[in-house]
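Notebook B, p. 112. Complex prediction, attempt 2.
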Amino acid sequence: MTALARKLAVYVVTAWVAITVNFLLPRLMPGNPIQTMIGKLQGRVTPQTQQAIQLQFGVGLHQSLWSQYLTYWSQLFHGNLGESITLSAPVSTVLGQTLPWTVGLLGVSTVISFALGTLVGIALGWRRGSWLDGLLPVSTFFQAVPYFFLGTVLLLVLGSDLHWFPVLGNYARGLTPGFNGPFIFSVLRYAELPVITIVLSSIAGWMLGMRNMMITTMDEDFVLVARAKGLPTRKVVSYAARSAILPSVANFSLAIGLVVSGALLVELVFNYPGVGNLLLQAVLNQDYPLLQGIFLVITLTVLAANLIADFVYVALDPRVRQEA
Amino acid sequence: MTVNADDLLPAGQLPAGQLPDTVIAKTRLRAVHLPRSPKAITGLIIIAVFALLTLIGPWIAPFAPNDNAFAPNLHPSAAHWLGTSNLGADIFSQLLNGARATMVVGFVAGLIATLLSVIIGITAGYIGGGTDEGLSLAANVFLAIPGLPLLIVIDSYLPASGRSNTLLIGVIISVTGWAWGARVLRAQTMSVKRRDFVEAARVVGEGRLRIMFFEVLPNLLAIVASSFLFTMLYAIGTYVALAYLGVTSTSVWNWGTMLYWAQSSNAPLTGAWWWFVPPGLCIALVGTGLALMNFGVDEFINPRLRAAGLSRRGMRQAGLPRHPKLGVTPVVRKATRAVPAPAAVTATTAGAGAGQAGGTR
């Protein structure tokens, strides 16, 4: 598994870079933004919060950068991401409540978008020049529309005007959260429109990539041989598709970053209580500890998703397995 | 994916002396093959219109974008084509003014990121070894870190003067946008550097830098163009998202700021579509234009896609079978078909399979 080990090493380095950037940014930025923030906070927060902020950003502690860095790491290992200023709660607690919603929304939309986009891409590539090609410009347009704009339009037309979907929030008010039927049903209903938005915006990328690879793969000899052997079309297509899907999986890391960025904004539009909404609050209130905690957690989540994609790649491509 | 070197030659370098005039005209057209696909032409027109708006938008705007001199919340009318905002500013003027910042940030970020990716990608691919390991690692790290959250953190630490500086924002966006292009260029460089002409240049004694940027780079121009378009698309989307969140200065007019103000004054919920739909559509149109141009570049790089992108009538005109056959690569070469002197032309298109349209593998 040398290939997988290498990938893992890259992710470890990436995580280290993200954490270090997180540490250095507030300290190296011109204009001393943290000092300004603490000045503004005088009297607004408890001494305890103030102390937590000083510890996190190393203001007024007269420590060297290196010893601040070590403190930062030890805090991190204890699961301590600092104290949110506006919410007066530990950042890790706040994120623990919101992250599941975002991961759920993103996970479901990404799986649907990838599966559907790949299937349509296979069809487009296999039957090139058919009426299906009319989908290309349409999907390009949807890809170019900003996620949040598409979300706004869908919210208005399908949600507010036609009342096809419930909107704003994550479940109907008055339900008790827990493992009961009405609650789960409501959660699913409220997630429909955000999921549709994310799928519509992100599907074109998978579709086009798959179509282009499919067209190229169909000219390979092994596809011709499969056909010549008299295999049924379905089997021939699946042979070609398995080979053509590899770049899509390999490019997952690029795509997931864009999808995550878009989905965060979709949450804002639908008032979905996930990390995206939290991010907006943090930006508006200049809640730097919260902002940094969110960045770190998003990055680590994306790295985890990449790792899963790499496992899938190994499962699909026997050549990678044999290298070990 | 091979780049056909012939297509990249300027028309003047073709052996024009041997060809009759009509052929020269055809070959000259062929040298700028890119805009001939209908998709690419559409994209080019869209982008040209918006490029023009970038230049003259603020001049042709009927009013100043911040001029709150009119009645608030007006519906579209002859005097105010897109109505007025809740503060009484002309929305159409805001739209025209917003084009400049949006396009400039996209262009600057695309340009810088592409430059970075060319330098890093070709260096990594050509030199190889430890340099390659280090640069590839850097590219992979930047690919894995999600761009928008990082940019939000960076930008929210900027002082107010920095947030309203569109050029600075463009530069910062480019830092997160170069990695993909670098990875693709590195892979292509590694394939080009093994070809004979590069070997020949090395034997002749050309310097490393010269080989990298005068021998290898010209063969990658199509990929560089594609990477530029893609990065510009990414940069515009990111800039608009940052502005929509209110991370960049809300007093610099761009389409994202317009959406920010429309959202914060509840324009979507009050049904004021003329406020939030036009900027969204403009963003989408620019994005579609760039993506369509990218289609053109893709078809240029990969002749197989060129045939696949044809309409049914186009396929019939090119003499291709109606239903694709397995094992046969339809390659469209209209220029060679139209020329009555195949022998002379075949010489110039030799590396390209020199076939008639619908040629076999």
